Amino acid sequence: MTVRERNLFVVLGASIGVVLLAVGWYAYFWEPLQAAQRQIADLNDEIDKQRHKIIQVQQEQKRLAKYKAFSLSAASDQAESEYVTFLGPLLKKCGLTVDVLSGPPPGSIKAVPTQGKKAAHVTLTFNVIARGDLSSFVKTLEELRRAPVTHRVRSFALNPAEGAGKDSGKLKISMTIEAMVVNKAAPANPYLHDKDNRLVILETLAGLLRAPLGLAQGPWKAVRAANLAIAAKESQSARDYAAIRHRDVFVGGKPYIPPKPVEIVQREPPPPSGPEDPGFDVFDYVRLVHTSPMTNEAWLHNRIYHEPEMRIRPAKPGYQIFQIKSEDRVWTLLRAKALRVDQRELYFQVGYKVYRFPIGATLSEALRRSLSDEEVERLKLDTLFDEEFAEESEAKNRKTPPQGKTPSKSK
After folding, report:
1. I need a labelling partner for 356 at 20 to 30 A (CA). Which of 25, 145, 187, 277 fits?
2. Three-class SS string for the chain?
């Protein structure tokens, strides 16, 4: 064997050895390692799924505990009579005239068959036909939402009431309300069920024997108060649902009607050295196009000069004061300070006066009437009034402060 053949043999043997080592390493180390890692990942995913299910079950248990406390009485017949006794006075209290209030037909109350581990509950359906205005209907929905009872308004329909006379302008309201008897709930709902007569007798005997009072009826009153507190906390909302009465549900939003002018603001004509008269009122083309009370921002748009929208932020320096200028951007026609942005309104200050600027209105309409001192205090704008800005504006305009009471800053 020559040296060349021996070298080739060594190289070939080494190559075969490397290949065998690579195959062995892959088959006995790398592949089992990857399989083990995949199995670990699958197990972790399964653990996360089970943990998520546990969290869901715990949340459902908390919700179920609340629903049990708010459930109707365990006996279906008693629950039906209790809920009718509760619902009838509530509808009348809210201003509705009840024509029909019917519960489920006799013999139709059946428990939902248990499926697996799910508990069976009993649902009672009540039909209501009443007459009233839109504000009474909204008040009814609010009262139902605040009541510590496991119920819901499944559907409702609003139609103009037929006939004239006392029903003129009212609505015919049809509602389907579902109330629930939760499985394994308490025998009686403290909010719907009167206190047990035995507790009253026991309390009376305690009073006759000069024993401490309140021990018999105390737990019942405590549970009732706790249920009312929980329901009131959960029903809190930043929305004012009573404002829906200002909308016509059959036509849509009502157009903005400017209030009847009480105080006419006469703007002094510009001096001879001021801007030239363009032949129109610039303020008629400046509109409030958008408000954002969450971020306390508003946007003005000048349609006549095709300028970009003006961003106003009462809480941020540099965006509080806004100015309306002439077309050549030389003369200032109006200088105002934004005080607060509400849902559809902007309140601003010009000199010693405060104005309300509704969304969609023009600046000329907003300047027709300034707010009175009583309105400023009622809207809590007196704490936002800027005396320094008013004095500065009056000094620039060479005016004297108006007589009478003016809003003052909070100290």
Report:
1. 277
2. CCHHHHHHHHHHHHHHHHHHHHHHHHHHHHHHHHHHHHHHHHHHHHHHHHHHHHHHHHHHHHHHHHHHHHCCCCCHHHHHHHHHHHHHHHHHHCCCEEEEEECCCCCCCCCCCCCCCCCCCEEEEEEEEEEECHHHHHHHHHHHHHCCCCEEEEEEEEEECCCCHHHCCCEEEEEEEEEEECCCCCCCCCCCCCCCHHHHHHHHHHHHCCCCCCCCCHHHHHHHHHHHHHHHHHCCCCCCHHHHHHCECCCECCCCCCCCCCCCCCCCCCCCCCCCCCCCCHHHHEEEEEEECCCCEEEEEECCCCCCCEEECCCCCCCCEEEEECCCCCCEEEEEEEEEECCCEEEEEECCEEEEEECCCEHHHHCCCECCHHHHHHCCCCCCCCHHHHHHHHHHHCCCCCCCCCCCCCC
Q: Is the pLDDT of residue 251 over 60?
A: no
Q: What is the pTM of this model?
A: 0.42
Q: Structural domain boundaries of the chain?
A: 76-108+120-246, 282-397
> Does the domain at residues 76-108+120-246 carry the CATH identifier 3.90.580.10?
no
Q: Is pLDDT larger for residue 322 or for residue 278?
A: 322
Quick: pLDDT tens for 297-329. Answer: 998 888 877 778 888 888 888 788 888 888 777
Residue 194's pLDDT band (boundaries 50, 70, 90)?
low
